[in-house]
Amino acid sequence: MSSTPTVLFVCVHNAGRSQMAAGYLRHLAGDRVTVLSAGSAPGSQVNPVAVQAMAEEGIDISGAIPQLLTTGAVEESDVVVTMGCGDTCPVFPGKRYEDWQLDDPAGQDLTMVRGVRNEIRNRVTGLLAELLG
Fold first, then answer.
1. Which entry of 8, 10, 11, 83 is annotated as an active-site residue?
2. What are the backbone dihedrals phi and psi of residue 77, each rounded to the nearest 5 degrees, phi first?
């Protein structure tokens, strides 16, 4: 792993779970970790309820734009965290992969999205502790 690890968060639309996870890791790690996020079939915008839920935590993801997952993003990453993208996520030898089973916040209300957000926060905090140990 490089001196500044790179973490890629991937979900289908890159509009909810992966954006919230990237927001948390950027917020908590600062420049100690390079953070990427992408989707196998990116949406047109970040889920507004996810934006609202993260704003409650003091984290602004409103300017995020869903990105298409590329093999280059996977190649440059030390850790790839998938969240429901299934078999569409490319796998490269020597990379650390984690699959986080999280409910999809698409179309859900704020109460449900808060639960997903909280689970993501817990997992990101654990991952950060492992990376920077």
1. 11
2. -95, 145
Closest-CA residue to 21 (of 130, 126, 94): 126
Give the per-residue pLDDT at 91: 74
Q: What is the mean pLDDT of each run of 10 residues along the chain (133 residues)?
A: 87 95 98 96 96 98 96 93 74 86 94 98 97 90
Supply the pTM of this predicted model: 0.94
- Among the options 22, 28, 35, 85, which is catalytic? 85
85 is catalytic: yes
Distance CA 89, CA 133 (A): 27
- What pLDDT score was predicted for residue 84? 77
The DSSP call for residue 10 is E
**Residues 56, 123, 71, 88, Cα dihedral to 10°:** -90
Q: Which residues are CB-neighbours of 130 under 8 A, at least 6 positions away?
A: none
Residue 89 annotated as catalytic: yes
